[in-house]
Amino acid sequence: MNENILPEPFQCDECQAGMLRLRFITYFTWLGEELITVPNFPAWICDVCGRREYDEKSISWLTMLLNPNAGKPTGRKTASRRATPRAASRPSAES
Ligand SMILES: [Zn+2]
């Protein structure tokens, strides 16, 4: 039932005077040589100095959308160099 409640604004670190408030802006980012615009992107904006902070979750979501390869390993094989276990099958001397 709290759909319409915006998160509380918080004090700006930059100017110590303004408050960062959640707004929905158009976010611009470059993808290679292409400028991508993302409308209605949540950002915290200071009402005094204009400092912007982006929601971490939204940023990582966006990064994932724009970089489908982000989560995949980039040809870097993790060489699983495991020392061959000596005495792996140790007889359980219990008796
Ligand atoms: Zn500020």
Q: For the record, give the distance between the C-alpha atoms at the N and C termini, rounded to a whole number.
A: 64 Å
* Computed Rg: 24 Å
Biggest β-sheet: count, sense, barrel? 4 strands, antiparallel
The secondary-structure element order is EEEEH
Mean pLDDT figure: 81
Number of helices: 1
Helix content: 10-25%
Mind telling me which CATH architecture of the domain at 10-66 this is? Roll
Shape: elongated
Write structural notes for this entry.
The structure is a single chain. The chain has one helix spanning 56-66, and strands spanning 10-11, 19-31, 34-46, 52-54. It is mainly β and 95 residues long. The chain has a domain at 10-66: Ubiquitin-like (UB roll) (Roll). The radius of gyration is 24 Å and the shape is elongated. The protein starts with 9 loop residues before the first strand and ends in a 29-residue tail after the last helix. The mean pLDDT is 81. The site of zinc ion has 8 residues, from loops. The site of zinc ion (ZN) has 8 residues, from loops.
